[in-house]
Design a protein that fits this description.
about 550 residues, alpha/beta, 6-stranded antiparallel sheet, 28 strands, about 25% strand
Amino acid sequence: MTHPTRRGLLGGAALAAVGAMAGAPAASAAPRASLGVVPPGWREFTRTPYTHPQIPFVGRAGCRGGAARLPRRPVVADVRRFGAVADGTTDCAPAINRAVAAAGRAGGGTVILPPGVLRIDGLIRVGHSNVVLRGAGSGRTTLRATRSLTDLIGPYGSRYGGDKSSWSWAGGLIWLAPEARWDSLVGAIRAKEWPFEGWTGNRREEWRTLTTLAPARRGSWSVRAADPSRLRAGDLVLLRLGDDADHTLLEHMAGDGAGAKSYTWDDKTKLTSYVPYEWPVRVTGVRGTQVSLERPLPLDLRPEWDPRLTTHVPELTGAGVEGLTLEAPELPQRPHLLDLGYNGVVLQCAYDCHVADVTVRHVDNGFGLVAASACTLRGTRVTGRGAHHPYFCREGSHDNLIEDFTVEERTVPAPAGTQLHGINVEGLSSYNVWSRGTMRAGTFDSHRGMPFANVRTDITVNNTGRHGGDAGAGPLFGARFTHWNIRVTNGRAGLMKIDGLAPWSATVGINEVREFDQVDTPDFTGDLHSRLELYGTTDVVRPRNLYEAQRAAAPGRFPNG
């Protein structure tokens, strides 16, 4: 088996750092201000890239392992041939959905939207793999939505009762989800039943074992299967890890150690409902009992967690949305957790899908990843009257890449009783990346549920939001949460400087910050084993962008058998 090596990591992007390290020839060294400062954490990472205790390897996050070029599929349909008229008054939703369905029946392809304003009185569904909905550009094609998800599907109540709306964190007016998932979700919502989410489907028993696995260490690019006969290169499988009675899996996600062992897990009923941990990954090769994987293992495999590869509900793969603006009515934002569902674009049970050059305006919630993995959101923007969740990443979403993103300042003041979060992550979601962003409002939101091994890097933020999550969802952070080169324009520390909050974490390159109105307290006692480097600095940090450096330093192909 071949896989990214230390030599490769010390090659590519790390070469930019070499000149700043001790011992570099003086004649070739640039002035320190222009060359930058290499933090000790990066030097350590290049020696142990897949097993570093505080900085995760995310160099394979995103669609097709973070490929720079997103898939380009041949045009198979133009919505105008199905009855769409970009006049701003004709309801084009039926025509768009007919065109998308036709592309799905054809086995995939691109569906073209013309320039202009297309009114949609219904939601747009992409339920077949390899179908891409493409406008003429976010500044040229606008879908003007007139109705909310509550209008179109019905009230989506909370599983905990009361009047909370689950449209606050689910569903989009452009909704990418496989047909099987869509049918069971909508049926459950209309029956007022809580549809359990996650990669195994709406019910946890909807899977079958492909093989059990031998013990292995986090960072391994292969596993040893008891029975590899049902595995083939290219298969998308689900790694399942169950917790034990002592919650040692949750402790491991928190970095192990005394703090995690002394934490009270049993009363965190919402958190414990998120296990087993489910991680979709593509098989790249099978040689004897050795099975090579597209990405390194996110966690150890220990016998007490019954590690196995399983099937899953058929995923949506290869689909996308490009080059358009989705605009909702400019209504006042509703009180917290009473969203009607004027939501933007949501990817659910999706793998290797993408969204590019898409703006959402006047939405309740912007872009969502729900049980979605290995997807890329590139060049996306949330603007208008303000959003509850500009971006949300939840229900076990892993290995996603959100880059070149913008959250604009609200165009109208927030009404009393509303909340702004920001770039949200929760529900044991792991190895996700937010890169090269501008946030004129919001925060680095964790809704508890112990997300771990996520990276925010090279982001400018006016830190005005608040985190969410109830006590039953457990810790704000698990291990290996990293903030790298973060520029906070208003100096507010909350959820930015996390060395006092997140166990086994890294805060590298952040300007001086202070608490303002939300005091965050650590969930774990004792030494958090956190790293704080180059505090009070930002743009001199090298590498400037942690994800891009990891990506550039790794070879240009996946590991294989």
